[in-house]
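The protein record filed here.
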Amino acid sequence: MSLQAKLDAFKADFEAGKPPYNVPDSVIQVMHRATAELVAAGAAEKVLKAGDKAPAFILNDPEGNPVVSAELLAKGPLVISFYRGVWCPYCNMELQALEAALPSFRELGANLIAISPQTAVNSRKSVRQNHLDFPILSDPHNDVAAAFGLRFVLPDYLVDLYTNLKNDLPSFNGDDSWTLPMPGRFVIGQDGVILYAEVNPDYTRRPEPEDMLPALRKATYASAD
């Protein structure tokens, strides 16, 4: 089953109010409103695109070790997934799909990382629960996400909803700004140029991991020339 098919099946059950979430329709409507407003605001149009230079960064892995983007790119192309957090079931399904595709990425000489605003302890939990063999880097205040054009501020009514649902982003992220990254997927060549960029303000829609393979092959062939 494709990643999107799994997401669609989960969404259908979630929005039908099925266990274990048992979410009322009023909550679903608020979430739909927030997504529609983000789409209408043209948020995705501000994101870096293929052909743009990727921002350099240094972020810590879940054990507190600094990871330098330039050092990763010196080894090969880089796949980046911006991850909202351990609390997001759609995001966890995406990480699991990326883990399944990791051997294909490595065959092409690529490294894979996820970037999230959540704290290191939550990233360790994500890695453990999703059985990941790649790191989730901590992006305090979503600063790197902002450099890619992905950061947005949650509207007040969505903050109220998250608070009522005990989805305490300030606690998850160690940051009281109530910002998140739109889920974004990037392939960066060794020269630092973005070869593939995919973002959707609708967090229930994600590209398939295999969609990045043509860009990775292009990067591999370019480095071999």
